[in-house]
Amino acid sequence: xxxxxxxxxxxxKLRRLREYKDKRKSIDDAERxxxxxxxxxxxxxxxxxKEEKFFRETFMYHREIRVLSRxxxxxxxxxxxxxxxxxxxxxxxxxxxxxxGHAVICRNAQGRYGYVLVEHLNFR
Length: 124
Hints:
With 124 residues, this protein is of the alpha+beta class. The chain has 1 helix and 5 strands, in the order H-E-E-E-E-E.
């Protein structure tokens, strides 16, 4: 019986250690998911830089990029050329430059730049 009592005393301690290890594993998993998030944000920032570089070369835009206003796309419009920005209905766009004529230069949420006709935009 003396040996059984010692075993009974040790069992709860082992269970606590297992619970602690389980909690520790969940903390490690959470930390790993944070690092995955950082990697994806780094990839996203590299893609944004690439799009900005393409924008500056294509549109010969050497000034600071400033957002003049925000607009919402009224309808979906596919792009016919690389310089045109494809739209989806309800998409939020940043207006970068309002040029002469019916087209403005906009940026979408993915960081892509292009011309959009004013007819397709809703300014609030």
